[in-house]
Specification:
By secondary structure, the chain is an alpha+beta fold. The chain contains 25 helices and 24 strands.
Length: 835
């Protein structure tokens, strides 16, 4: 306790040094704590369920002929047909249970309140397998998931019950309208449970067997070529993942070869062989099933590495400060040693001061972490933020505390070791009053600064790469004009609309929107542009030879009149759709240039050719006439190549249940954000609008990951460079003070001010060259690791390397110039009397 009090008094004696050290460390620790919070939530945290380590995710890679529908719970290799799920669930084998789930869009209506929400279809085994208990009422059991359409029950998420229904216990057994279907509320899930898909925050849970009622018109329960359900299981006690893999694959292989292989049609022998050889892939399921785990891994590892380097630079700064302070306390250490203090006791006392300084920085770093997470939240789209908790959790506090303790020892150990070497006899004999290890300490300080320059170089190169990548993304030719366009979606089918009523609503909406003052164009599309969705189907095209292993797949969209004119996509030939292209009219299509290239069509002569979409039947006749060809424009992602794409009129889709509108205005688009909801309140006050935003915002959200990484990397690199510059200045200033006598003698013997300045700047140059070379090598490794996140450049881009070298060189010379000038102004007479 006495040592702690002495440490406090010592730190208070030098408040400026203490404040600089604490602030430097707080910035470094806080940045790490913020990134760790995301790292923990996205990559480390287990589901809040019973024994999550025994959960196993199932996937089925290999040929999947037929229909595939996947979402953020995983890619299409992870989905199963409902029939296959039931077959596997019956076998039991190495599992104590198996469950399936699927995210779906939901419109909810309860006591006059409507909400566009998210739901999860879950098998009856879902809650029992996870061990999730209800906060109110009950959860589903096997008997709630037997006969299609006969289990109209719903479990509310705790968040929906709390935020929307005020935790009212009387909601039990009341009716909630879900997608136009009356459902009885039977329970509320446990607090903190938000399903098994990171990034999805469901409001309700519905029995899997009710999919046909949630998605009107769907009825493919026994279709083994329709893949859509995500599956996980729980290992029996004592069963390993390897054992489970062998046992379940023996069962799966039998089903594939005896039941499903005979159902495949039009498949080549080679593809059929691969189909029969398919194996289940089992992976640990303690984190649930989500694309986020894979997509976030590389960016978070990169950011964690960057913040770690920032912290190392901060530690080097503080170590240099402590070495400088230790030189001034050498006489104190020598006297205390001569009075009986052991070297171990002196080291413990100095480390106590270092750790106390680090713990103070740790407390301050929590505020830095919160600010950093707020910055991250401002860069992420609303959908991404809703699935994260941008707050300081107990886990983050524990991590921060451990990191602070670790850094306290890291930056304090060598200065403590060095300062405790001093003895009184050596001190009294030394002509300069400096301990005998001063030269070693000087070399160590120079090494720390060189390392800071190297780390700063690596971070600046990384930031430069990400900035250039974002610039490249911003220069991508979208093929359309997003300025002054507002977009939003509506899903009448989720409110129980029949197709005829849906079409009438869309037509009324188009007329009402077109009548808004300043509106110059209105159109619509089934698949939202740059919304991350990909809808595809096999096609047959006049003159294109198809075969079992020939890729005949194309992306498609269903659109309204004046689609290309409203979005600014040039029409190369033919015509756009108009209101006459409706039910009963001849089927028509418009293709893009990529479609023409893939299917061997001359864009100038494609108009008039015939094609067919195989969405209905693989043997459909060529019943769609191509009436137009348009220039390539981005479809799903800004960074992806434009895919082969054909368009059909949405009016010719008898099952259309939702649409995305696009409204172009000659006025400020933000005005439409207020006007459009009023229009739809007149049309149907119970129909919620989805994703109301400007197209510019849609484009930014499509590349939010690039912008987020670029912004954070640039901020952290700027901080690292500032810390490195401060460290370089501090070391040179201390060195100049230590060499005052030497500079005075040199000037007394004839050296001019310029020569003295060059001496100091040569030291800067040596550290910069060595640090720069090491930094370039580190930057090459960092650029290679980040290659998958870069767009339009390589991780070793020479222009970035050159630019960063010049920038950091200027910073280093700037930091060294003031000490160099101070050295050149040394008064020889004063220097000769120095100490």
């Amino acid at each position: 306790m006495g040592g702690l009090r002495m440490a406090v008094r010592t730190l208070m004696k030098s408040p400026f040094l203490t404040a600089v050290a604490v602030l430097s460390l707080a910035l470094g620790i806080g940045a790490n704590a913020a990134i760790f919070s995301l790292f923990d939530q996205m990559l480390l945290r287990s589901l809040p369920v019973q024994e999550p380590d025994r959960l196993v995710n199932l996937a089925a890679p290999g040929p999947k002929p037929g229909s595939q529908s996947c979402n953020q719970a995983g890619d299409c290799e992870a989905v199963f047909s409902h029939a296959m799920f039931r077959d596997l669930a019956k076998t039991g084998a190495p599992f104590s249970g198996m469950a399936a789930h699927r995210i779906f869009g939901a419109n909810l209506a309860f006591e006059g309140q409507t909400l566009s929400a998210e739901g999860v279809l879950v098998s009856g085994s879902y809650f029992p397998l996870l061990g999730v208990q209800p906060a109110l009422g009950r959860v589903f059991v096997e008997s709630d998931d037997v006969n299609p359409g006969e289990h109209a029950v719903v479990v509310l998420s705790h968040n929906y019950w709390e935020s929307r229904l005020g935790e009212d216990p009387s909601v039990l057994n009341q009716t909630l309208i879900v997608n136009g279907h009356p459902m009885t509320i039977v329970g509320v899930a446990a607090r903190g449970f938000s399903g098994t898909t990171l990034g999805s925050v469901p409001d309700i849970f519905v029995p899997l067997i009710m999919r046909g009622e949630m998605e009107r018109g769907w009825n493919r329960w026994e279709n083994r070529r329709d893949y859509w359900a995500y599956v996980f299981a729980r290992l029996k006690p004592g069963v390993t993942l390897e054992q489970a893999d062998r046992e379940i694959n023996a069962v799966y292989s039998g089903i594939i070869n005896e039941v499903e292989a005979p159902l495949q049609e039009g498949m080549s022998e080679a593809t059929l062989t691969r189909f029969k050889a398919r194996k289940l892939l089992l992976e640990p399921g303690y984190r649930g099933q989500s694309n986020v785990h894979h997509e976030a891994e590389t960016p978070l590892n990169i950011l964690f590495g960057i913040t770690g380097l920032v912290l190392l630079i901060a530690c080097a700064n503080v170590a240099n400060l402590l070495l400088a302070r230790g030189a001034g306390r050498s006489q104190e250490m020598a006297v205390r040693g001569s009075l009986g203090a052991s070297r171990g006791g002196l080291i413990r006392q100095l480390l106590t001061e270092s750790v106390l300084m680090a713990l103070l920085a740790g407390v301050l770093s929590l505020f830095v972490a919160q600010w950093t997470m707020a910055l991250i939240g401002s860069l992420l789209p609303p959908d991404a933020v809703s699935g994260l908790k941008l707050e300081i959790s107990p886990t983050v506090i524990a991590f921060t505390g451990l990191l602070a303790l670790g850094t306290g020892f890291l930056f304090g150990f060598y200065p403590a070791l060095h300062a405790s070497r001093a003895d009184l006899v050596t001190m009294l004999k030394s002509s300069s009053g400096q301990p005998s290890g001063a030269r070693n300490a000087a070399r160590f300080r120079s090494s720390l600064v060189t390392a800071q320059i190297a780390l700063s170089m690596a971070l600046l190169v990384a930031a430069g790469l990400f900035i250039k990548s974002v610039v490249n993304v911003s220069r991508v030719d979208l093929g359309l004009d997003p300025e002054n366009v507002v977009t939003f979606g509506v899903s009448p089918v989720l409110n129980g609309y029949e197709p005829e009523r849906t079409l009438a609503l869309f037509e009324r909406a188009e007329a009402e929107l077109a009548a808004i003052p300043g509106v110059t164009g209105v159109t619509s599309a089934l698949v939202p542009v740059l919304g991350g969705s990909n809808w595809g189907t096999d096609v047959a095209v006049q003159g294109f030879q198809r075969g079992p292993d020939i890729d005949s797949n194309s992306r498609y969209n269903e659109i309204g009149p004046d689609y290309f004119g409203t979005l600014g996509i040039p029409l190369l030939g033919g015509r756009e759709f108009d209101v006459s292209d409706g039910p009963g009219a001849p089927k028509v299509a418009i293709i893009n240039e990529a479609f023409a290239r893939k299917f061997n069509l001359d864009p100038r002569q494609a108009v008039g050719k015939f094609m067919s979409s195989n969405r209905g039947s693989p043997d459909a006749e060529l019943d769609m006439q191509i009436v137009g060809v348009v220039k390539d424009a981005k479809y799903s992602e800004v960074k992806q190549e434009v895919p082969p794409l054909f368009f059909a009129p949405y009016r010719q889709d008898a099952r259309l249940g939702w649409i995305t509108f696009y409204v172009r205005t000659s006025l400020v688009p933000e005005q439409l954000l207020k006007t459009i909801p009023e229009v739809f309140k007149r049309l149907d006050p119970n129909l919620p609008l989805e994703q109301l935003k400007t197209m510019d915002q849609q484009v930014r959200e499509n590349v939010f990951l690039d912008r987020t990484i670029s912004t954070l990397a640039s901020a952290f690199a700027a901080l690292a460079t500032l810390l490195a510059a401060v460290g370089l200045y501090g070391v040179l200033a201390f060195t100049v003070a230590q060499r005052t006598r030497e500079f005075g003698l040199r000037m007394a013997l004839g050296a001019d001010a310029g020569r003295v300045r060059r001496m100091v700047l040569r030291q800067v140059t040596r550290m910069f060259v060595v640090g720069g070379v090491l930094g370039i090598l580190a930057a090459l490794a960092l650029g290679k690791a980040a290659q998958s996140l870069l767009f339009g450049l390589e991780g070793n881009d020479p222009w970035v390397m050159i630019g960063v070298t010049l920038l950091l060189g200027a910073v280093a010379l700037g930091a060294g110039y003031v000490p160099a000038v101070r050295a050149s102004r040394t008064d020889p007479m004063h220097a000769l009397r120095y100490e």
